[in-house]
Design brief:
mainly alpha, about 180 residues
């Protein structure tokens, strides 16, 4: 049984009660090795000889060297997932629609997990950096608008009568 062999490997009595809770470099190394081989933390931590997930998170908070080891294991795990995508997307039996749909789901799930574990490399977000300064003077804007209006006036005589600020006579309006 894997649990007893792990217990023996780390010098724990196979009949010891409870999971490991104190940080142990050997257990941490085994956990990271299994992560980097593609196993999930949930699967690893479900075994009696391995620490609970909460314990692993406590180790991460308390041990900077374990953080580095764990981070490298997760990076390797994501890379392995990317290799799996190729195998899954090239099914052996392309005529079996159930297998094709299952593989599509597996590919999509792995892509989603990869985007969360390594967002800079596999995420869908676009990083757009814009720098600089934009200043708009109101006088320039009004002058530009007046030029546009004068251009429009020259092509529309009816518009000229209503837009000309110097023409205050109302005699045109009464005709």
């Amino acid at each position: 049984m894997l649990d007893r062999s792990c217990a023996r490997m780390f010098g724990m009595a196979s009949n010891s009660i409870g999971r490991p809770s104190s940080y142990n470099e050997d257990i941490a190394a085994l956990l990271c090795e299994r992560l980097s081989n593609g196993e999930s933390l949930r699967t690893i931590c479900s075994e009696d000889a391995m620490p609970a997930k909460a314990t692993v998170f406590k180790w991460l908070a308390a041990n900077p060297s374990f953080v580095d080891q764990y981070t490298r294991a997760r990076e390797t795990q994501v890379e392995l997932m990317s290799f799996d995508l190729i195998d899954l997307s090239d099914p052996k039996d392309k005529d079996d629609m159930v297998a094709v749909q299952r593989n599509r789901l597996q590919v999509d799930t792995r892509k989603w997990v990869m985007s969360k574990l390594a967002p800079k490399k596999y995420g869908d977000t676009a990083n757009i950096n814009v720098s600089g300064e934009i200043t708009i003077g109101i006088a320039e804007s009004l002058s530009s608008a007046r030029k546009r209006l004068l251009t429009a006036k020259s092509s529309a005589p009816l518009l000229e009568a209503t837009l000309d600020p110097e023409d205050t006579s109302e005699s045109d309006a009464t005709d």
